[in-house]
Amino acid sequence: MKEITVVGGPASLNLAKRIAKKLNLPYKSFSLKIFPDGESKVRLEEVPNTKGVILVQSTYPPVDRHWMQLFFMLSFLTEKAYDIILVVPYFGYSRQDKEFLKGEAISLKVIADLLSNFWIKEMITLDFHNPKALSYFKFPAYNLSTVPLLAEYAKKNFQLIDSLCVSPDLGGSSRVKEFSKILEIPYLSLEKSRDKITGEISLKDAEIQVSNKTIFIVDDIISTGKSIVKATKFLKERGASKVYALISHIISSNALKIIKESDIDELIGTNTIPNRISKVDVSEIVSSYIEKKW
Ligand code: R5P
């Protein structure tokens, strides 16, 4: 284990530092320069004297920029022959995992192919949108769930009497099931559909008993915020007293604005994407996975 250094990429310096501390490993980081034309230059100022590195870089917006920085860092580390364990806390492009509309490129497959150029021994990601799509990767790729941490947060911070866990769509059913099992409260999934062209969301009407209940919405991502806003409105209109949302990745400031103007009572995110609502620290699950495996 001592033969590894944790290396922070520009998008995940704090998280990488926390992981290094938990694993009691040396820590180094890449510095970043952005040129006036928008290009990024990364530089590892102190070169690790270990055989392996754990490189941590999340790929939240600006997604393309963070991916390019990651490719540059991987290129440097591969050239210098380090064994690389790659941690991508939020994996940008994971949602475009098939040709939804005829003529679309499968962005996730493109990223997976590009990553196969580097000396990656294993990749770890968190709450990957569709874990089955990890089969695109040509090296071992492992998905960790943040659900136990989100459930722990709910247990510590909210009153659980008369409460219900809700997934905003059927795709999130196993996630909400896992969450509700930990909290020992019932759950249901709403039936959401999204117009593939306009992105507009609609929810199928349903006879659900939410009157005077505290609702915990669990989801993997808030991107535009449309899903969460719609689900909150739907539940409040049917009498829910409080709606709290516990989300793995909250990816845009636009979403924060939408939510501020919505009827949601509290929004809780993790630090896979650092922002002012990153209330849940994921360093513990990443470091304990690495400790067991490596
Ligand atoms: C959908 O399948 C996901 O689980 C999220 O619910 C969705 O991607 C959230 O996107 P937005 O915030 O843009 O509605």
Write down the domain tally. 2
The backbone outline, from C-alpha atoms, is globular
Bound molecules: ribose-5-phosphate
Question: How much helix, percentage-wise, in residues?
Answer: 25-40%
SSE ordering: EHEEEHEHEEHEHEEEEHEHEEH
Largest sheet: 7 strands, mixed
CATH topology of the largest domain: Rossmann fold
Summed over residues and divided by their number, the pLDDT gives a mean of 95
Q: State the strand order across the main sheet.
A: 3-2-1-4-5-6-7
CATH architecture descriptor text of the largest domain: 3-Layer(aba) Sandwich
Rg measurement, Å: 20 Å
CATH class of the largest domain: Alpha Beta
Helical/strand content category: alpha/beta
* N/C terminus separation: 7 Å
Note poorly predicted spans. Answer: none
Helices, by number, come to 8
Count of individual beta strands: 15
Q: What fraction strand?
A: 25-35%
